[in-house]
Structures are given as C-alpha cells and as structure tokens.
Amino acid sequence: xxxxxxxxxxxxxxxxxxxxxxxxxxxxxxxxxxxxxxxxxxxxxxxxxxxxxxxxxxxxxxxxxxxxxxxxxxxxxxxxxxxxxxxxxxxxxxxxxxxxxxxxxxxxxxxxxxxxxxxxxxxxxxxxxxxxxxxxxxxxxxxxxxxxxxxxxxxxxxxxxxxxxxxxxxxxxxxxxxxxxxxxxxxxxxxxxxxxxxxxxxxxxxxxxxxxxxxxxxxxxxxxxxxxxxxxxxxxxxxxxxxxxxxxxxxxxxxxxxx
Length: 259
Description:
Rossmann fold, 2 domains, 7-stranded parallel sheet, 7 strands, about 50% helix, globular
C-alpha cells in the first residue's frame, strides 16, 4: 500500500477548516491539524482523523508569529518527508469603522489572515518544488473581491490573499504546483453566528430574522454556504480534475458577486 499523501490545514479544529480536514481525510490524505481549542476536543478530532490507527498530527502554532508559521510547515516536512497539500484557512475578524478600528486589531487580522498565508506558502514551496508537485489552496472570502463597511482589515487581507494566490500560481506554473483561492460568502460558522447574534441584539429581533436579514443584504439565494461545500471545492482542486487549474478565485457566494 502506498503512503498516504500529506496535507496541512491551518485553523482546522473547527468550522470550515475542520470540514476541509475531514473531507481530505476521506479522500485518502494524512491530515496535520492546526488551531485552538479544548485539549479533549482536539484529541477527539485527532482520533477521528487517524490513519492506520495513528491519530492525526496536531500543532497549535500561533499563526500571528512568522517564526511559528515557518516551524509549523517545516515540522510537517521533517516528520513526513513531504507536504502534498497546504490549505491556508485560518482567519479572524473584527468589525468597526476605520476611524474607530483598533490598530492592534488591524495588525492581528493582517498577521493571521494574510501574512500567515505568505509565511506558510514560503515554507512549503521548497519541498513541493523538490517533488515537482503540490497543491496550495487559500481560503479567501467574497470579501477578497468586493468590500463591505466596517471590515477594512478583513477586506484588505482577503484582497491580498487573492493577489498572493495569483503570484504563487504564476511563479510555479511550470513546476507541477497549483495555487487557487476559494471565496465563500456567508458560511454559518461560529464567527458568522456571532455576527447574527449581534444583529439580533442590536435590532431587537430573533435570531432567525437577523439571519435572514443578513442573507438578504448580500446573497440572492437566501441560503448560507455550507462548510462542506467549501471542503468539496478543496477536494476538487487537490484531485486529478484540478491538475491544470491554477491562479483562480472560486466564489461560493449564493450570487453575492453576480449583482
């Protein structure tokens, strides 16, 4: 039996990242997890994603620190001798108007949502180039293509991710390495759930009304994208059908950017 392919998914202990980790595990990958969470919950995920009875690797690296990001990726290569897929998924959010936006929040969002993508990609490329194969998938956002008020740092970071994706694809176009971005609209993650709860409180309405209002402002389908939908796109891009797909940004946004 051939050795499982190796993938690293950042921010994979919950939400979209966990859905991606599960989908890639089901597709035959040995998954390396990264993210925050309760030790017991992380242990359960590691057991769920075990290969041949061996729990999935886990590294709780703080992605706001460049040295930690580099050590995370190099640790994967040192342990497994290769890295076949890198999924840059980790992200955080804070909302406020520009004049009220805390500078420390700006720095933190740019560090995790954009700079960590660069540092992880930079660390993974030499091993991929040595194998003349590899897939990099960056989880951007519809906010990498369009803007919304009170999200200056997030929008700036996600626009940057798409630009970095395109440069990575061009620089490695003849190397067997692809790099693409996925741009979800509203996905019902804990981060978005908090925005719904804040809206419900601010408007004095129930949670379902707040959720529908949120969708109606942006997504014509009036449906949330599922984390599993994003994961399925990652599986497509990392599979045989994605061999010649690179430098693209795929929207899963319920028609948001079609307006």
